[in-house]
Write a structure and sequence with these properties.
The protein is of the alpha+beta class. The chain is built from 2 helices and 4 strands, in the order βαββαβ. Helix 1 packs antiparallel against helix 2.
């Protein structure tokens, strides 16, 4: 299934900057960066639970925001892109 992860992490403090890096690094372990704070992750249900658990353990609910969009297994028919194209192929091999 395709899960789009977006986040907003407060970077007013050094600990916030560290959280931002950890969130991005965690997302990179499961998917590709679509935009600065948006990742597209093709995961199975077990991987999704791991990713969600890791992200929820990093973020600070009083200061940060996480959003997950589930596009399912038929995501190719639900995704359109316009504008400057990045040479990203979500189907390429991802080594974790």
């Amino acid at each position: 299934m395709l899960v789009v992860v977006s986040y907003d992490v407060s970077t007013k403090t050094m600990s916030g900057k560290k959280r931002l890096r950890k969130v991005a690094e965690t997302c990179l372990d499961y998917g590709i960066r679509a935009q600065n704070s948006v990742f597209e992750c093709i995961v199975d249900p077990a991987q999704w639970e791991e990713l969600k658990e890791q992200l929820l353990s990093i973020y600070k609910k009083e200061e940060d925001s996480l959003r997950f969009y589930f596009l399912g297994a038929n995501w190719q028919k639900r995704l359109e892109h316009y504008g400057k194209e990045k040479k990203l192929n979500i189907d390429d091999l991802l080594i974790i």
